[in-house]
Amino acid sequence: MQFYSSAIHINTTSNTDIINISPQVADLVSRHNILNGIVLLFVPGSTAALTTIEYERGVINDLRRAIELMAPEGITYEHDARWGDGNGYAHVRAAILGPSLTIPLRGGQLLLGTWQQIVLCDFDNRPRTREIIMQLQGIA
Predict the structure, then answer these.
(1) Less packed terminus of the chain by CB within 10 Å, N or C?
(2) Which residues of 67-82 are buried (b: 16+ CB within 10 A; e: fewer)?
(3) Average pLDDT over the chain, rounded to an integer
(4) DSSP tag of 98
(5) Cα angle at 60 between 59 and 61, to 5 degrees?
């Protein structure tokens, strides 16, 4: 059993950036000699999340609209009253989607569906540099 840990750094703007990180993940996987195993991805912080989606403009816009319906930006959040930073909605959105993904690896390839990509969703109301921690475990 082999184990590797690495990180991807992504600069975001603000307000629901949805960024395809599949190429960066695949590149890191290809650098290691693991054929079968798992890839664990985790984004530290409470205003960003990871998920998979077909990364095309229509679905991305649909996801943004669905997230806005679930946790609207323009309503009162107790977090904002307490901290005054105006990003209560970002915390709720990130909690709904979650901070991590686990993807199987077979034959050195991520087992994603034909149109499935890995995306970072940054909901914060200010630009950030996000770190996505990747842990790779498996056998050669």
Answers:
(1) N
(2) beeebebeeebebeee
(3) 96
(4) -
(5) 90
Q: In the chain, which ranges are continuous DSSP H helix?
A: 22-30, 57-70, 78-83, 88-97
Cβ atoms of 100 and 50 within 8 Å: the answer is yes
DSSP class of residue 72? Answer: -
| Count of other CB atoms within 10 angstroms of residue 19 | 19
Does 140 score more than 90 pLDDT? Answer: no
For residues 15 and 99, the model is more confident at 99
| pLDDT one-digit tens code per residue, 34-84 | 999 999 999 999 999 999 999 999 999 999 999 999 999 999 999 999 999
Q: Which two tokens stand for residue 17?
A: 């950036």
The pair of three-digit structure tokens given for residue 134, joined into one six-digit string: 């990747």
